[in-house]
Amino acid sequence: MNGHGSWAVRAAVWIAVLGGCSASRAVSPLGKGNTAITTSMGGPVVSYAGVPLPVPIGSVGAAHGVSDRTNIYGSFYWTPVLLFGIPGADLGVATELFGPMGARPRLMAGATTHVFFGDTAAGDPRGGVRVFPDLSAIGSWPIGPQDRSTVWTGLDLLVQTAAPADVFLSPLVGAEVRPGRVGLRAELKWLAATVDNLQGVPDWYGIGHRGALSLQLGVDIHLGDAGRAPGKGGA
After folding, report:
1. In 3D, which of 11, 160, 35, 153 has the Cα closest to residue 87?
2. Cα(108)–Cα(96) distance, rounded to whole angstroms?
């Protein structure tokens, strides 16, 4: 695959590697039967004519609590379609391994599958399907009134299954302020932190010429019991 098609495949790889297109959703349980609408916008910071600008990667989706400790979720990446002609989506599950106690954080483990449907732009070569498994471990601390706001840190591991196979590690920190049914999120991630970014196109802003820094902002609308704190049987 070459020309526009090969560029589209490289774009799909970086879309998936650089943040998974959305803020972390494996942060805290929603509670059994509760549902949330999730949105996010943001992405890696690149140099455009010497000016640092974030790539605007947007997603919209939903999450649902199948038990008091486990969520399922999925989302559609809408801006990659507009920017690159590459539709994408994800589906995942996250479960609480143990809850917070004192200074000890809640620990959530998540598994997500990202799928990109090749290249929808006109002309040859035609695109294919790319699948990216993604694992995460997130430690979070509930804060504020009724413990309904949250701060977290964690590690994301994304696998590139297509040749050349590779693994990308991304440490992250984030916070959500949730006074009611609406939660406002911000997450900073060091994407592909072990990858040399001096050889890449475009020019990514990373740390020590490694990976890329990414900022994701999100709004979640909780449709369940807003009167309970996350992970305590509520949304």
Report:
1. 11
2. 4
DSSP line for 34-46? -EEEEEEEEEEEE
**Residue with tokens 């947007």, as numbered in its chain:** 58
Number of H helices, E strands in the chain: 2, 12
**What separation, in Å, do the N-terminal and C-terminal C-alpha atoms of the chain show?**
46
Residue 146 DSSP one-character state = G
Tens of pLDDT, residues 2-37 = 344 444 445 444 554 545 556 788 899 999 999 999
- Integer Cα distance of 187 and 44 in angstroms: 12
Above 50 in pLDDT, residue 160? yes
The phi-psi region of residue 200 (left if phi > 0; otherwise alpha if psi is between -120 and 50; otherwise beta) is: beta
> Rounded CA gap, 25 and 74, in Å?
10
Domains and CATH numbers, the chain: 3-222 (2.40.128)
Q: For 83-129, where are the E strands, in sequence order?
A: 88-98, 106-116
Distance CA 125, CA 230 (A): 47
Q: State both tokens at 199.
A: 């050889």
Rg (CA), the chain: 18
Token duo for residue 41: 């916008």
